[in-house]
Design goal:
Layout lengths: L2 E5 L6 H9 L17 E6 L4 H9 L3 E3 L2 E6 L14 H9 L3 E7 L15 H32 L3 H18 L11 H8 L9 E6 L12 H14 L3 E4 L1 H6 L5 H10 L6 H12 L2 E7 L3 E8 L4 H8 L1 H5 L1 E8 H7 L2 H6 L4 E3 L9 E7 L2
Parallel strand pairs: 1-4, 1-5, 3-9, 5-6, 6-7
Antiparallel strand pairs: 2-4, 8-9, 10-11, 10-12
Helix pairs in contact: 4-5, 5-6
The structure holds guanosine-5'-triphosphate (GTP) and magnesium ion.
The site of guanosine-5'-triphosphate has 25 residues, from helix 1 and helix 8.
Length: 367
Amino acid sequence: MLSAGIVGLPNVGKSTLFNAVTRTRKAQAANYPFCTIDPNVGVVTVPDSRLDVLAKLSHSQKVVPAAIEFVDIAGLVKGASAGEGLGNQFLSHIREVNAIVQVVRCFESGDIHHVSGTIDPVRDIEVINTELVLADLAALQKRHDRLQKEVRAGSKTARAESAVIDKLLPHLDAGKPAITAALTDDEKAIAREFFLLTSKPTIFACNVAESELANAANQPHVRAVEDYARTHFGSEAVVISAQIESELIDLTAAEANEYLRDLGVQESGVGALIRAVYHLLGLRTYLTTGEKETRAWTIREGDKAPAAAGVIHTDFERGFIAAEVVHYDDLVALGSFAKARESGKLRIEGKDYVVKDGDVVEFRFNV
Ligand SMILES: Nc1nc2c(ncn2[C@@H]2O[C@H](COP(=O)(O)OP(=O)(O)OP(=O)(O)O)[C@@H](O)[C@H]2O)c(=O)[nH]1
Ligand SMILES: [Mg+2]
């Protein structure tokens, strides 16, 4: 299962957010830095309103949503790449995840200690990024030095690797994450093998005060983080109040909605965060539906029908014949499979078909 790591300075609300996202109290959240040492891991289902609609249409007995893993990682501080504050050990936990959710403190509170004393989200992001970049620089430099003997001996692969490193080093030296380096697809494939911390897709979670949640889009700290995410990472920021979200855990859905309405908020931010991470990981959902169950299956963007079938069972991929496909929007608009078939929206697709997010699929296979 693909995973997202929750990363940030100490005491910014990472464990609080982890508990909210996983709807548990598994992670200890407390008002002191380095409360978390060992990572907390939890599986999170991806909210998808399409599932209940399909389940109703098919009279399904159960619904199975998609899932991803969240990992709550210890706080990083300045100097982590050089081993400060258990730095190297924490960095290795980040290395194992597929994407990063960087939690940035945007809430003012005299009670909650901030390791740098003041609220300045962009400074905080730069502290974290500097450590990740420095760790990558050290790893690349070491790899570069190690490769030179093979390069001199005429190894083609060593030369290709070394050339990619030569491109990455000045980029990282300028403080930029590896993910924004201009590399060709071939170079990217080589760079993937370096397992760099800054090559992981990253989004930023602005942890705002509960009083600011309703009007967060205009909050200057949030604007600054959004701007930074766009210009430095080509990515986005989501707004969340970890504190409120963690208080919703014990409420029923109706109670939670009422509580949020009182705060002037439409929807809990956790659902939006989970969906954003799912997309950030390059994941897409196709659906199956029947009397037994309605289910979301996770594929990667660009996967073809046989690979998508293989997610259900390897036999489905090996014996793949065809896929009967109708898009969710068409199926719901028309109201039934029979109508979808009549109107030609239910098609038979072959092995080169690229499965789309929201396709409702039935596979034909032979084993
Ligand atoms: N007022 C307020 N307090 C918060 C918010 N989010 C977290 N806190 C508090 O901040 C403190 C630190 O929260 P944690 O979730 O433990 O922070 P962390 O980032 O996991 O900290 P480390 O594991 O030490 O790196 C706790 O006392 C939380 O209750 C928030 O949105 N508003
Ligand atoms: Mg923590």
